[in-house]
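Hi R.,

Here's the chain you asked about this morning:
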Amino acid sequence: MSESTKFQLSGLLLAGGQGSRLGGRDKGLMPWAGRPVAEHLVELLRTQVGEVLISCNRNQQRYQLWADIVVGDAQPDYPGPLAGILAGLKACSGSHLLIVPCDLPRLEQALLAQLCELAREQPERPVLTRSAEAWQPLLAVIPKACLPALEQAWQAGQRSPLRWLLGENASVLELPAADPQLLNANRLEDWQ
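And the predicted structure, written out as tokens:
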């Protein structure tokens, strides 16, 4: 089996939250540079992956415009991003899942390429990002082979993506402190 058939990336945009810090607005549909941020981030994902999944729990018809597959959480009441990751790993066709949260509108293609390259170098381990002491566990690549471990952790009550990834011996892509690409846009002023 060739290297390219062993390592095939699917992409997952996490857009399943309640938007509670944005007054209930759907973060993935927030305008960024004149269009919904989900559309912008899906374009970035498509530079790296063969298929794009979007995890969302509302506005599924809107998200279907940009996704090959739309998934939702198996449990009601917005159980958190680990539920979206679990749904994405179950539904993806690739050997690895590149995960991007919808609250990183300043993300650039070069950073995604760097993350994917590290994942290719260590295909058996998840990869997540960190900027100085600030972890970014939702900007990650997870091998589909980790699905059984994630299902087991979920059943045992794990809800923290960071704790789960660190427990899986994840590699870390170290980024500069205060990298503007990693500004989590959680307040209305972050979207200006």
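The domain at 3-191 is CATH 3.90.550.10 (Spore Coat Polysaccharide Biosynthesis Protein SpsA; Chain A).

Let me know if you need anything else.
M.
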